[in-house]
Amino acid sequence: MTGIWRMIGQRLLLGVLTLFIISLVIFGATELLPGDLARELLGQSATEETLAALREQLGLNEPAPVRYWNWLTGVLQGDFGVSMATQRPISELVGARLGNTLFLALYAAALSVPLSLLLGVLAALWRNSVFDRASNALALTVISFPEFFVAYILILWLAQTGLFPSMVRITGATTTGDLLYSAFLPALTLTLVVTAHMMRMTRAAIINLMASPYIEMARLKGMSPMRVVLRHAVPNALAPIINVVALNLAYLITGVVVVEVVFVYPGLGQLMIDAVTNRDIPVVQAIALIFASAYVLLNLLADVLSTVTNPRLMHRT
Amino acid sequence: MGRDILLSIRGLRIDGRSGDAWHPIVKGVDLTLHRGEVLGLIGESGAGKSTLGLAAMGFARDGCRISGGTINFDGIDLRTAPEAIRRGLRGKRIAYVAQSAAASFNPAHRLIDQYCEAPVVHGVMSREKAEGDAVDLYRRMRLPNPEDIGFRYPHQVSGGQLQRAMTAMAMACRPDLIIFDEPTTALDVTTQIEVLAAIRDIVRQSGTAAIYITHDLAVVAQMADRIKVLLRGDEVEEADTRSMLAAPRQAYTRSLWAVRSFARAEQPPGTGTPVVSVRNVTAGYGAVDVLKNVSFDIHARRTVAVVGESGSGKSTAARVIAGLLPPRKGQVLMGGKTLPPGFRARSRDELRQCQMIYQMADTALNPKLRLRELIGRPAEMYLGLKGRALETRIRDLLALIELEPDTYIDRLPSELSGGQKQRIGIARALAAEPQLIICDEVTSALDQIVQEDILKLLDRLQGELNLAYMFITHDLATVKSIADEVVVMQQGTVVEHGPKGALFARPKQDYTRLLLSSVPEMDPDWLNRLLAARGEHA
Are B530 and B517 spatial neighbours (Cβ–Cβ below 8 Å)? Predict the structure, then answer.
């Protein structure tokens, strides 16, 4: 067991290092953005004096390494700085949005992960059957359309008929039940988008093992096909399945901008788009860093789970 | 016979699919097995032994189909019975023991969980009773720590122990019939004996009938009451073990008996500077020393066989000589000159002097290259041959390994048989015009008759080209036929080293004696005598 803690420790350290490098990249990339923030904020009519005063106030005259250092130390203390557009603290601005994004991601994951695992296992069990072909064809069809198209089709079918709302409003009075109802269409859109990948990977990982001698052994022990797949193939296919699930969860957190826009969902993706249009650099940096952390953490989790579920790595002697 | 017939197979035909066409694998074989009887199925690869064994369970692998005949198991027609009936028999009344226990145990579950699966799912006994039973069978299979070994995962248990655990698992429901599919082929000789004895005892005590599939005559002689010989899906002959061994009727059977007749004359001892000299080498991976202070010499025109069980360091010694694994201590001399430890630091000419031939010719040849390129590349790289000269050299090499150049020069490895692929491996090594060739288990993946041809070829080439061979093998019969000197290794050290004749006739070390006495002999009483002599059981 000490081995596993050591591994988690090592991966965490590597994750921190990765995030550090990412923070450099993010900062460097925003430095390269053209345009003058002060002029953007004050508009064309600003005088040189007011511009200079604003630059001084925002600290834009400091050299880049100093600004990077100030930003990094702030971030480490949980202070992402102040939004240039709204003058409100970024942590406050991002906090609520992050909650919304995580809610939608979890909602979509709760629908898509069980669905794709079930479909993947059944497709592997009845491979080359009508069910297998149909579910594959359907899943591929859905991911072949752009997300906004899927979203509009769902609105056409399910919102125009009045079953579900096409816009998501979140106020202080919204209950979880309301939220689940009103966020159903965006969650369903995301489910349709990510299911194909997870399902096909599950199917492939299981089928890959079906030629193994131990699978033949299970069949020669008189086990039913369902038991052979669930008890003998799935436990050995967990590592690739866990990894593809983690990848898709990360996507659900970071890649949902288009869906948020279509359904007017107040998530991080929308906030990031707004911040980019407003040249609100600190907000862009904060959100980019959050997205990167989501990837790093989920991949870490996938690594740990793959290790824990593999007896060859857990019981070395 | 007077006993009940348990299994009766009549006119069985099984086809295998290649592309869109079906071709026959088993061509109308009859088989009768009585209760409590052990039938040995023997033949070379491609004879259809395993396919026939699986058919006795009403099972055909993916890509195979049973196309004709009847399979009657104790009154049940396994061809026409519904799948549910067949599934109910498998694991319960007919069990299977696979060739590689390491691959056939599920790596995700403990041994005891896999043991209990069949009895519990088939409703034969409760989980608690099955667990108690498992410990009892583990003990009878003479596994160490029978109480605890079931709670280990397959990767925590050695190959010989896994094979015994798998036999115990097959016995779990006290089946009427067990199919043993080459259960000891993947094991070392010393381990093989224990597994053979354990299998034989438990089969006899329980009165279980068995089909014992193997390519090894000496093994089947110990295990079977009757022997059936198969060749390319047809029965050659069948008789009870003693009369078959004493007087095989068919020419093919006699040819199986006659292998290993090849024995080359022992060469005069080497003189002068050895081609390769390994001096006090210690080497290993990670924190472990796999080789400990190993020394031996190989002279020109001599074959030094390095023998030992898996894990004894044979292949590691080869890797050190080839420069793939730099030693921690000691050195390798070639023609009296110290070689740089790693292959990267060696000159092209030093690399040329030492070539390797591998066990699995299948994976050692690039499947995308034609023979022209496979053999031509080393000739081009080491000797700078080009154009007409290169073409001539490739043709000469093909002729040297007895493959007709015009027919073979533009073939791909996939268009060759196993023995032919190994010949290409030899030609590729020869193309560099080396002084030393390291042969790493080069015959162990081949059928015995093919092995014989390869050994003869290697012997002829050695005489013609003045080669030195380092011959790594675990097969002592091969050593007897080709070696001049023998290096016996155990756990990374050289236990004994000497000329073949003396070493086989008067082994000095206990381990060498154990190794030599463990090689199965054709005599059906060999195992009994050996066990009695070792005092392992009554």
Answer: yes
Chain B residues in contact with A235 by the CB 8 A cut-off are 106, 108-109
Complex-level ipTM: 0.78
Three-class SS string for B167-203? Answer: HHHHHCCCCCEEEEECCCCCCCHHHHHHHHHHHHHHH
State residue A1's pLDDT score.
59
Do B307 and B247 sit in the same domain of this protein? no
- Shared domain for B241 and B373, answered yes or no, is no
Residues A33 and A141 in one domain: no
What contacts B341, CB < 8 A, 6 or more positions away? B323, B326, B327, B331, B332
Contact A221 B61 (CB under 8 A): no
More confidently predicted of B366 and B252: B366
Can you give the pLDDT at residue B392?
92
Assess contact for A271 and A224: CB atoms under 8 A.
no
Q: Which two tokens stand for residue B151?
A: 């709670």
Residue A224 burial (C-beta neighbours within 10 Å; 0-12, 13-18, 19+): middle
Domain of B216, in residue numbers: 5-105+175-258
**Whether residue B183 sits in one domain with residue B282:** no
Q: What is the pTM of this model?
A: 0.79
Residue B68, in any domain of the structure: yes
**pLDDT grade for A317, boundaries at 50, 70 and 90:** low
Within 10 angstroms of residue B519's Cβ, the number of other Cβ atoms is: 17
Residues of B in contact with A216 (CB under 8 A): 61, 98, 104
- Min Cα distance A213 → chain B (Å) is 5
* Contact residues on chain A for B100, CB-CB shorter than 8 A: 213
A83 falls within a domain? no
Tell which of B258, B289, B308 closes a domain. Answer: B258
The residues near B274 (Cβ < 8 Å, ≥ 6 apart) are B297, B298, B299, B333, B336
CA dist B357 and B460 (Å) reads 16
Write out the two tokens for B398. 């093909």
C-alpha–C-alpha distance, residues B490 and B504, integer Å: 17
Q: Are B198 and B525 in contact (CB under 8 A)?
A: no
A45: domain range?
Answer: 2-76
Q: Count up the domains in chain B and report the number.
A: 2
Q: With respect to residue A199, please indicate whether it lies within any of the assigned structural domains.
A: yes
Q: Return all residues near B408 (Cβ < 8 A) that are at least 6 apart.
A: B371, B398, B416, B420
Q: Quote the minimal CA–CA distance from A244 to chain B in Å.
A: 20
Closest by alpha carbon to B36, among B12, B81, B69, B2?
B2
